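Students often ask what a holo structure prediction actually looks like on paper. The answer is less mysterious than it sounds. You provide the chain, you provide the ligand, and the output is a string of discrete structure tokens encoding the 3D arrangement of the protein together with nicotinamide-adenine-dinucleotide.
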Amino acid sequence: MGHHQNTKLVLVVGGAGFIGSHTVDLLLSEGYRVRVLDNFSTGKRHNLPETHERLEILAGDMSDQAILRRICVDITHVLHLAAQVSVVDSLENPVFSCQQNILSFVAVLDAARMHNARFVYASSAAIYGNQNTLPLQEEDPALPISPYGLEKYSNELYADLYGRIYGLSHLGLRYFNVYGPRQDPKSPYSGVISRFVDQVAAGKPLTVRGDGKQFRDFIHVRDVARANVAALRGNTLGVLNVARGEATSIIELAKLIEKISGSVSGVHWVPDIPGDIKRSLADSTRMRQFLCSPQWPLAEGIRELLGQ
Ligand SMILES: NC(=O)c1ccc[n+]([C@@H]2O[C@H](COP(=O)([O-])OP(=O)(O)OC[C@H]3O[C@@H](n4cnc5c(N)ncnc54)[C@H](O)[C@@H]3O)[C@@H](O)[C@H]2O)c1
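The corresponding structure tokens follow.
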């Protein structure tokens, strides 16, 4: 039986990763055709369906312009998520980080421009740095405190320029702290929720950095996937925060995870890491207005991760 065949073909760069794979799932379920480009540096093949009639997966590096040229045939939309994603690594190896997050970003941006495709890309809450006034609003100044944050800000400036000189349709999504299934807990720099869940499963204490009073604005990856699809479908220009607009301190988070899991291993205090932001809380009014409203309460998302 022929189901509705969508004529839209979305190129998802970094589609085998954490946010990418959930977005691909949603795009496929909504009838889109999807082409993934990924070099599988942090992404995994098994994050994506083994086979699907509307999914093509290409292994390759986004810095390769010949590959980009080949895979952009017929695309109508680009979702660019591939990046050097670690703040700490951007401090330790700023040249590699710049190559991935600025040079390769421009390669993908330019490919979108050549095909007149709608361009949606991952920015980050990291562009804000440590600000005095919260919640963070889109028009607040960018004050990055890491190469990673600066690179994401430069992406926004590039996209804005391409909008003005080429009429490119673009939207940058400033993701706050994304969590959920498929987040890799093995990296020491990955999300705190995946680390805590992993520690609970191993019967280990939860490692809390600094005084634990730093807070974050957590959003479930399936809510982020919904925001991404809404961003591709729409024509909003510029940048939007993607967050729930609720602050949770790390110590509150540890207590919540202990309560849900029944863990009695306690907390292990460790020093702060450089480049870590103290207070992160978004104004999510515009996301709710222009994209969608997040649906996953934090406790429910954590319960699912803990298998409770
Ligand atoms: N997870 C978060 O909380 C968060 C917060 C803010 C911003 N972001 C941004 O969102 C995007 C997606 O992050 P994620 O958490 O899904 O990370 P991820 O590491 O799971 O996904 C990145 C994907 O890009 C691929 N990739 C990396 N370099 C590549 C290259 N040179 N060529 C082709 N593919 C390449 C990786 O293999 C991976 O599949 C990134 O741009 C990240 O900076 C994430």
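The first strand starts at residue 9 and ends at 13.
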